[in-house]
Write a structure and sequence with these properties.
single chain, 682 residues, Jelly Rolls, 27 strands, 3 domains, 27% helix, alpha/beta, 18 helices
Length: 682
């Protein structure tokens, strides 16, 4: 990981240069923004008929030549106007993915240590040519990535996406210097890769009677045979997968496969129920760790996966295991006793450690979600920190490499604009500006610890994304923001510059047939959240008669009286949480008795993650903090509703009090999490 170098910008000297730069608001029209550049004199006019010369090793030369010719560029050995050259030493470049691009009046030349560097330098040149077709200003660019791992995850389990779709996304992502495509290939909703040893994974576990995950999830969650007239789903044959891996390689992208274990495995255990704790189909989601047959299955599957995927990393999931059946399973209990394991967390860790040794023995590295930290992290594993930056810090301090992808900043299955204006999503709110503002390396790490942050990734889970068009809509332009976070130095980034470039990128992607978010007409955050609110309770002490939920601490005990109203999502640090099935009971001390005319707060409902409105809210006041007088009792019939909903529970009238109390009861039928924002007292 790089930390910082100086950005060099020279004088602007040529009229046509000024015209190009004026059109692009004074910034180099390249995304991700390069590390350093200096303007020269003159303009390079790149003729569409110009011959480009590629001077690289045999494979890289063939890859780059094919890539350029596919885009209508002529490539030959006599090209003088554009040269792509690999060298043993390139001044100022340390990374194999770095490059120097020099553009003068007469020619453009890319120098790099490898084909990957030439490829990325070519992307920069192509972007400049697109932005300045009448003439590219003379410039020298020195550029290399901040992080080695720059990833996007596509969930093809919940809704299968075919090979052509994935290749189309590789085209776009590689152009913005993304170099890892993490494919979520297996999950309860469907197994998506052919395994010769276990044919029922693709003959049965890859198909369901419902077309959408939502219908399947709300139904019986069953699977069906491939030939069933109701069958919906799909999988990649080994040949298709090898073709996809090769396509990615030719764009300098590595596909990282994910094979879930020990949880999210309902589809496997329906097809092969003997691998569960009771041997019964449709009863478990976790493998039985006590059975040797489980490890035989896992190792056989991973052996075939490694034959397809050359990736250094093999992702094994490791997240969200219920572990419930392990507590009573004789086989699991026997395993725990034999191995000296004190609890089921350590039992999961036993599986992760054992699978890691198997992968290491085959020259690969295990990658998993941060739950693999529970019970003792595998010593050589790469941890994906999805439950928050602190989980990444924890892994780093255990000595493990980390890819930062906390849900708050990197889960692009969230709404990207006002929920009422968007297709249904799982919930949340992650606009372009927020993902662009993500900093993967917390300042609490030492320089040595920071080196263990190897990259970042944006994750696109697809429960609520049933079509290819919808998946592209959720990807772009947010994936491009992640690309700049992963490649560019923090000091070189500018939200205003990126936003202007993103508007142009959206237009370009649409011309190329991608379905993107309408960034130009973005609505933005809730009006209530755009400015602080002044009221009698700001800064006052809050007593919690019922504890807030530690999983979403927000601003702690200041959350309800910090003057900040909540936005579209509960993880913006402004919504106070009370755990599922619990209640809210808080008292605000105004310091002295005051005349009161209104007391109220907003609650939210997002059905997907189990967030519900309260069924009853009571607002009371007291002069002495002992005896309370109810001002209003608000009853609400909570219903299952797929729309993101906000409701204000409020009293208005005339009263006098020092203490204000708000109680809220979770709906008994749903038992969901309660989220409330500022309690506004006037």
């Amino acid at each position: 990981m790089r930390t910082g170098k100086i950005l060099l910008i020279g004088a602007i000297c040529v009229l046509s240069h000024v015209a190009c730069e004026t059109r692009h608001e004074g910034a180099l029209p390249v995304t991700p923004v390069p590390e350093a550049y200096a303007w020269g004199r003159g303009v390079f006019e790149l003729d569409k008929n110009a011959v480009w010369r590629v001077e690289a090793s045999g494979e890289d030369k063939e890859i780059l030549t094919a890539y350029l010719e596919k885009r209508g560029v002529s490539v030959g050995d006599s090209g003088e106007k554009v040269e792509l050259v690999t060298k043993d030493v390139v001044e100022g470049i340390d990374s194999e993915e770095g490059y120097v691009l020099t553009i003068s009046r007469r020619r453009a030349r890319v120098e790099a240590l490898s084909g990957a560097g030439l490829f990325y330098g070519t992307q920069t040149l192509l972007q400049l040519w697109t932005a300045c077709p009448e003439g590219i200003p003379a410039v020298t660019i020195r550029d290399e990535p901040r992080f080695a791992y720059r990833g996007i995850m596509l969930d093809v389990s919940r809704h299968f996406r075919d090979k052509d779709f994935v290749e189309k996304q590789i085209d776009a992502l590689a152009a913005y210097k993304i170099n890892r495509l993490h494919l979520h290939l297996t999950d309860a909703a469907g197994w998506r890769v052919e395994i010769d040893r276990y044919p029922r994974l693709t003959e049965f576990a890859a198909w369901r009677p419902q077309a959408t995950w939502k219908e399947w999830w709300n139904g019986k969650r069953e699977y069906c045979g491939r030939t069933d007239s109701r069958a919906s789903g799909g999988f990649y044959t080994k040949e298709e997968m090898r073709e996809l891996v090769d396509y990615a390689r030719r764009h300098y992208v590595t596909i990282v496969p994910e094979i879930e274990m020990p949880s999210h495995s309902e589809e496997v255990l329906a097809a092969y129920p003997e691998l569960s704790c009771t041997g019964e189909p449709y009863r478990h989601g976790d493998f039985c760790i006590g059975k040797e047959e489980t490890f035989e299955f896992i190792e056989n599957v991973l052996t075939e996966v490694m034959e397809i995927f050359p990736s250094e990393y093999i992702h094994v999931g490791g997240d969200e295991a219920s572990k419930a059946s392990w507590k009573t399973c004789p086989d699991c209990q026997a395993r725990m006793k034999a191995e000296g394991l004190k609890d089921v967390d350590e039992l999961q860790s036993y599986l992760i450690h054992r699978v890691e040794r198997f992968l290491n023995d085959h020259g690969r590295k295990l990658m998993g979600w941060d739950e693999i930290l529970d019970g003792g992290v595998a010593p050589n594993a790469v941890v994906m920190a999805w439950r928050g930056v602190p989980k990444g810090v924890e892994a780093v301090r255990e000595g493990n490499p980390v890819v930062m992808n906390p849900g708050q900043y990197c889960y692009i299955d969230s709404y990207q604009d006002a929920p009422y204006s968007q297709p249904e999503a799982i919930g949340g709110y992650l606009p372009l500006e927020k993902i662009y503002g993500f900093e993967p390396v917390p300042d609490t790490l030492s320089p040595e610890e920071a080196e263990l942050i190897i990259g970042t990734e944006a994750n696109l889970f697809a429960e609520y994304i049933p079509t290819a068009e919808h998946m592209e809509y959720m990807l772009y332009p947010r994936a491009i923001a992640l690309a700049e976070v992963a490649w560019s130095l923090p000091g070189n980034k500018s939200w205003e510059s990126f936003h202007r470039r993103a508007l142009r990128i959206v237009d370009e992607l649409r011309k190329r047939g991608y379905n993107t978010f309408d960034l130009k007409n973005e609505i933005g955050n809730r009006e209530e959240a755009k400015a602080p609110v002044a009221h009698l309770g700001v800064g006052k002490t809050v007593k919690y008669n019922a504890p807030a939920w530690e999983a979403y601490p927000a601003a702690g005990e200041r959350t309800l009286t910090d003057g900040l109203r909540g936005g579209w999502n509960y993880n913006d640090g402004r919504w106070q949480a009370f755990a599922a099935g619990e209640w809210m009971d808080v008292v605000i001390d105004l310091g002295e008795e005051r005349p009161l005319h209104s007391i109220g707060a907003d609650f939210m409902q997002i059905y997907g993650p189990g967030v519900f409105l309260p069924e009853r809210v009571v607002i009371s006041v007291s002069a002495d903090g002992e005896k309370y007088t109810p001002l209003v009792k608000i009853e609400h019939k909570v219903r299952r509703d797929d729309q993101v909903t906000f409701k204000r529970y409020e009293w208005t009238g005339s009263a006098s009090a020092r203490y204000v109390r708000m109680e809220a009861d979770a709906a008994k039928e749903f038992g969901g999490v309660l989220f409330t924002d500022e309690i506004v007292i006037k």
